[in-house]
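If your schedule permits, I should be very grateful for your opinion on a structural question. Kindly check, if you would, that the fold set down in the tokens agrees with what the sequence suggests. Thank you for your consideration; the sequence and its tokens are set out here:
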Amino acid sequence: MLGPSPRTALLLLGALLAALPGCEDVDVFIPLPDQSGPAGVLDGTVTYSGPRPCTKDGHVVGAAVVLGLDARLLPPPEGLGTSAASIDVIPGDELFGGLGAALDPTNDGALRCPAPDDPPVTVSATFRLSPLPAGTYQIRGFYDHDGDFDPIFSIANLPSQGDVAGGAIENATEVLGGAAPRYREVTLAAPIPATGARVSGIAVTLGLPLPLERPIFHVAEVLAPASGVSEGPGEVVMASDFQLETFTPADPVGTEASLLRLRLAAGVLAKEVASAAKPPISLPVGGEPAPTLTYARQDVNGDGALDGDDHVPDSALIPALFPISVFAKLDGDDPLASQAAPAVLLQGLTIYKDLVTTATLGAEALNEPQESALIGVRPAALCMHPTEPERGGLLVISHETDREGNPILPEPDDENADAWDVRDVEEALTRQFGRTIEVVYGCLPEGRYALNLIYGTGQAWTVPNEAGVCAPSERPSASTCGERPRLASQDMVLRIGPPDDPAYCAAHPTPALCARSR
């Protein structure tokens, strides 16, 4: 199930892209007959500025990966996208070909990498993204410095530690000083003419080495409240009518205890490390230092300052933290594919040590590695159609109050305008997702949900994934998928199950907008 090696996959993908229609000399871009109508091309120059690459057997290790992203489907944390609209891959031999003697051509099987104090290099090559329908795009990318990128599988399809990231960035100078990147938006206007459309001269810069590995994790501990939660093989089940026992700023300890919480430990189970570190899985878990998960403050409003405005949508008292946690509804019984339309998400609450400590963090940036991260599961689901922002979205909260009668989200109080209320939550989510979000009350959408952790760099990890799930063609067992190891820790889901009180859900049904589109 893990397929070809990363290098083979890159070469195959490069060959496929090279075969796409289009001509460098003539502005005519008409796709193959099995594609729908004329299409567009985005092209330009990708410039790499960073460490000299490693070499092995006379070849440069890795490749530059350029991604064209639909602006409506940006990857988390900005949006709901799960894949690129188009991808181009520039092999390392091509990108660094002009370095000549600076690259070690020795063909003895040894990996040769630059010393830490070696000077950086700057090189350029051309890229092309096609065929693309009319729309607005952002272009992002990275140099896969260690050659472990594989676009086919979720466990290897994002940049890892040491890769050099970037994109078509409008504020490149500020980014080098620590500011968040502001990506250029490139439009292919509709309708695309019969001869196609082309936007050229797009400058992509790769110059930010990533200091962290992806947030690889497994569920190490389930901290469940007294009711509404159960555990089964490979899943934690929360009732669709789950109600918090206590939810009030006056009792943060009781509020935390009322949440379903998952302690996500870095890496994989100790008994799985040896199998996980070896091919074909090849996760970075077997060496030193041991895997960690890094907490950091989130600059929610993008103003470059960490302050009281950078809080979670549902409370002005709790700062927003990385890693972001998101539970995404899977497509029926498919073990890996998220439900596309509508997207249904439960936004987790990232807790630093405990809720009281989290609320009193102040403005420090953290950037603190830990052995685990504590995630609270809100009994609230976001339902929205990713490519149809005009339809808005719903935040479905299972109950209006906790069991003690405290409101989950207070109604607006004109006499206390500074108090955080339901209207503030709707406005915060509307800004976050670029569509009007309305709060409603009803039972949560039942089904299986994948667990995701996301860093501010966009590096992410999802459970379940291919390391724990067997393909239909493989013979599954408790520890293997056919001939390869199976990591049971990487096959875990949150399930929103049937209600404890069916009468409640009959009176407060899941909204139709949350139902899977056929």
